[in-house]
Write a structure and sequence with these properties.
With about 350 residues, this protein is α/β, with parallel strands linked by helices. The chain is built from twelve helices and eleven strands. The strands form four sheets. The chain has a five-stranded mixed beta sheet, with helices on both faces. It starts with a helix and ends with a helix.
Length: about 350
């Protein structure tokens, strides 16, 4: 009877959620596949599945249930779990849904309610989480909020020169606290901090595998640090020190890590899709002034704004390059081998081309 009441409350509860942006829903992707940091990403399915590995736990051993919101968190857990076969991992944002437009389903709420560890970003787009946690069945679950880990290092969303400001919502108060930039996972330095916290919490939940988790996170953080050094060297040797996005700009943490300058059409969490003539003209002017050979966009970009900027420049021959912010990574991407490191390595190659 209590179970039926809990399900009914979860269904009713889900209708109250509103995401940042479009009201798009998604089905959650769930997987227990837990490759080591050098392994190829294994298949994920909509059903909860067990990791298949040589380090399988005894049949009577209860696996941890870990629920994550976005792909980077999901992949970090996989790398730390490694081949221990100790957890089933859920990635809520699947099928290409964007962080800013995600709405949890009743099924998602139930998964969070009963999990052992829940990991989320903690920015404005996750405003729904507070209520979900207050209604959770498992009052002993561990919760990791990436923005809380950042503390005073979290950056305010900034509007740089030429960037199109968002339209004020009707009835919105004129003076509000500045919105924080929630795209914290796009810094390799931040990723190392987050992974160490995740490993510590997994170790507390599963002492039997604590040593393995710490070994895995040490190895993985070494890979993150090595890639961080590659980024720094690329920026140092680049002919340019400025990039230009004809799109939203979620890479603030990344460019700040390496002292890069940037121009963009919109801020990272912007819901704007229509760009003004003034914004197009400004971006085209900057391409001309800086002699840029490429115009950037994020993975969800359709190239329309970039193409318009290009046609407005003097040379009209710039390449349109794409950097992946991992806000809408899908199960298919995971099945095809996508990992946090592989995507950040591809972003590095794009950055090299943009700076030279």
């Amino acid at each position: 009877m209590h179970w039926m009441i809990g399900v009914l409350l979860a269904v009713l509860f889900a209708f109250g959620f509103v995401g940042c942006g479009a009201s798009k829903q998604t089905q959650s992707s769930q997987s227990g596949d837990s490759p080591s940091s050098t392994a190829t990403a294994q298949s994920t399915t909509a059903q909860s599945t067990s990791a298949q590995s040589a380090g399988a736990q005894p049949a009577n051993s209860k696996k941890l249930s870990v629920v994550t919101t976005i792909f980077p968190e999901y992949d970090w857990v996989r790398q730390i779990i490694g081949d221990t076969n100790s957890a089933d991992i859920t990635m809520l944002l699947d099928n290409g849904v964007d962080l800013h437009s995600y709405q949890p389903t009743a099924e998602d709420i139930m998964k969070i309610s009963n999990c052992d560890l829940f990991i989320y970003v903690g920015g404005e787009s996750d405003a729904w989480v507070k209520k979900a946690l207050s209604e959770a069945t498992n009052k002993n679950m561990k919760v990791i909020n990436l923005m809380e880990i950042m503390g005073d290092s979290a950056k305010e969303e900034e509007v740089v020169e030429g960037m199109q400001p968002e339209k004020e919502e009707e009835g919105k108060k004129e003076e509000e606290e500045p919105e924080q930039d929630e795209h914290v996972w796009l810094s390799l330095k931040n990723a190392q901090k987050f992974c160490k916290v995740i490993a510590d919490d997994l170790a507390e939940l599963d002492p039997a595998n604590a040593q393995k988790y710490q070994e895995n996170v040490t190895s993985y953080c070494n890979q993150l640090a090595s890639l961080d050094t590659e980024y720094a060297n690329t920026v140092k040797s680049g002919k340019k020190n400025t990039i230009l996005f004809a799109d939203r700009f979620p890479f603030r943490y990344l460019v700040d890590d390496y002292g890069l300058k940037y121009y963009a059409a919109f801020v990272g969490c912007s819901a704007e899709t229509e760009v003004s003539f003034d914004t197009i003209a400004f971006l085209a002017k900057k391409v001309n002034e800086l002699g840029l050979s490429s115009i950037l966009q994020i993975e969800s970009g359709n190239g329309r704004i970039a193409d318009t900027v290009k046609k407005t420049t003097s040379a009209k021959n710039q390449k349109t390059l794409t950097m992946d912010s991992m806000q809408s990574t899908t199960t298919k991407d995971v099945n095809d081998g996508a990992t946090y490191l592989s995507i950040m390595k591809k972003n590095l190659e794009v950055l090299k081309e943009a700076l030279n």
